[in-house]
Amino acid sequence: MSELQQIANELRGIAIELSFKGRTPHLGSSLSCADIIAALYWEILDINPQNPEEPQQDRFILSKGHAVTTLYAALAKKGYFPVEELSTYVEADSRLPEHPIPGCIPGIDLATGSLGHGLSVAVGMALANRIQKLDNRVFTLLSDGECNEGSIWEAAMFAPTHKLGNLCAIVDFNKWQATGRSQEVMSLEPLEKKFESFGWNTYRIDGHSFDELLSALRKCESSQETPTAIIADTVKGKGVSFMEDDNNWHYRIPTKEEVELAKRELGLITLNS
Length: 273
Ligand SMILES: Cc1ncc(C[n+]2csc(CCOP(=O)(O)OP(=O)(O)O)c2C)c(N)n1
Prior knowledge:
Blueprint (H helix, E strand, L loop, with lengths): L2 H20 L4 H6 L1 H11 L14 E4 L5 H11 L39 H14 L6 E6 L6 H12 L5 E7 L2 E2 L2 E2 H4 L5 H7 L3 E6 L3 H8 L10 E6 L22 H10 L8
Parallel strand pairs: 1-2, 2-3, 3-7, 6-7
Antiparallel strand pairs: 4-5
Helix pairs in contact: 1-3, 1-4, 1-10, 3-4, 3-9, 5-6
The structure holds thiamine diphosphate (TPP).
């Protein structure tokens, strides 16, 4: 297992524990994007966790805010806040609410959870960087169901018009939304062609292949004039056999036994432990 895969699985393990402890849903959503978040935070983002307010660094907006447990896991492991604080998740007065809120922990720039807003704000941040001649980039992670919202396509039209080459939108295309198959609720295909026709550099990749993820993410260069869209084909619940591609895990909370089983599958607990 590669080091990056190991990290992604650790993020998955934390997301599973948090769902169990906090009795919060959206576990399948957190698991589908763990590889994307690991690739971003460990290989791509130029960030300074010790000084998150410093303007000269890349920014990441988790537009699909309901998957925040994976982001909390990454931010803790990266040093934005103490790992021990994860145990306070969703408790009264915790800095780790069920959806991300800026001002709670460092590293969260936008309140998300109400879907459809991340790309518009990321566009604004990228434009602000361009105006201020800052060369840092803005990345945002969208979900496929979220791409049904009109606000996404307004932002998608704006970004190429204003030559926002410092912007990268990644779609965690796990083919499910809350109540059904994305294709049946409102079809997005061919999604990469839609972004392309709006003027984006577009890549369609396997969102669980680190080679493909890193190769596509590295193509977002601040010096370019064209924004980048990465359509990442993923599996909801990825990494745990009994959660994969089963949309019950959009809402279901694991039992203690399921937590143990899942962590074993992820290589986080040996059979003897
Ligand atoms: C504006 C808005 N409407 C409804 C919801 C409730 N909700 C939470 S997750 C979700 C859909 C999840 O599907 P998708 O966006 O594809 O993300 P996934 O969980 O599959 O990664 C919905 C409708 C919301 N968060 N925001």
